[in-house]
Amino acid sequence: MPKLEVVAETVGPWRRLRASAEAATREEPQLASQMNSVILSHDGMAGALSYQVARKLGDDELGAMSVREICLSAYAADPAIVEAAEADLQAVAERDPAIRSLLQPFLYFKGFQALQGWRIAHWLWEQGRETLAFHFQSRISELFQLDIHPGARMGKGLFLDHGTGIVIGETAVVDDEVSMLHGVTLGGTGAERGDRHPKIGRGVLLGAGAKVLGNIVIGDYAKVASGSVVLKAVPSGCTVAGVPARLVNCPTNAEPARTMDHTLADVVYDFVI
After folding, report:
1. For the chain, what percent of residues have pLDDT higher than 70?
2. How many CB atoms lie within 10 A of CB 129?
3. pTM, whole model, 2 decimals?
4. Alpha-carbon distance 238 to 38, whole Å?
5. What is residue 186's three-state secondary structure?
6. Which part of the chain is CATH 2.160.10.10?
7. Dihedral of CA 117/222/211/104: which sign?
8. In 3-state terms, what secondary structure has residue 180?
9. Distances, alpha carbon 145 to alpha carbons 79, 130, 141, 165, in Å
10. For the chain, where do the domains classified as CATH 1.10.3130.10 start and end?
11. Cα four-point dihedral sign 173, 92, 212, 166
12. Half-sphere exposure of 245 toward its Cβ, with a 13 Å CA cutoff?
């Protein structure tokens, strides 16, 4: 099967996305209409992104045209939303060896698409339009099997690999350059009120099925192993694993979220964090 054209990483995400769509049109003429309507007919990332979010999240109650108008209003009011989306695309390109071009996350990957829908929901939440924000949250959950509260705060350059089963609570904070795999929960313990969800530092790697519960801090560039249950703060640059989670390495890989390095130390430190 012919490969799609490879576009230099130095070219911006929008130009790379367009080039990939043009190559896909040549390779698979049956997809030409889709490539044109979603990507090639637009002048920039904002137009294409709004179209893609709208065609996914539009339904009988809130049609695609209305969703697109909301998206364009959000992008006009806060251009940083589109900048964050471009950083998210770049993160997928850097960290996911499965992709062939930016087309795959932009058109097909649940994690990326759910994240872009959430960015609109969060903008609505910040505008005090909570009911509409919850509508977006509900649609995202129904379509992509991710449940991210619109009140959560999340940075840019995020990689939600696979995405299925990710749950992020209302007062959670996720800093820039974080990677998380399917089944991650950033939740409360069920007893608190108010600020009750985790604070995830920059460049953290959260393995598949990791559960981080309560208003605790996971320090910058820390790593949480798959299947772990974390109930206490994790120091920056450290690795934790197990149920309950224990420190297994300090310091760990310098940038675990970028390298997607899930390895653990050979020596386990015998204390619970």
Report:
1. 92
2. 16
3. 0.90
4. 42
5. strand
6. 152-273
7. positive
8. strand
9. 27, 21, 5, 6
10. 1-145
11. positive
12. 30
Q: DSSP letter for 249, please.
A: E
The structure tokens listed for 136 are 């977006």
Other beta carbons within 10 angstroms of residue 261's beta carbon come to 15
Number of H helices, E strands in the chain: 9, 15
Nearest alpha carbon to residue 186 among 176, 29, 201, 177: 201
CA distances from 227 to 48, 118, 243, 255, 269 (A): 37, 25, 8, 20, 18
CATH code of the domain made up of 1-145:
1.10.3130.10
CATH 3.40.50.10490 fits 152-273, yes or no: no
Going from the first residue of the chain to its last (273 residues), give the mean pLDDT of each consecutive group of 10, the final group possibly shorter: 40 92 96 96 97 97 97 98 97 93 96 98 98 98 97 98 97 98 95 91 97 97 97 95 91 74 61 48
Which neighbouring-strand residues pair with 239? Answer: 223, 249
Whole-angstrom distance, CA of residue 216 vs CA of residue 234? 8
20 in Cβ contact with 102 (< 8 Å): yes
Report how far residue 22's alpha carbon sits from residue 14's, in angstroms, rounded to the nearest whole number: 12
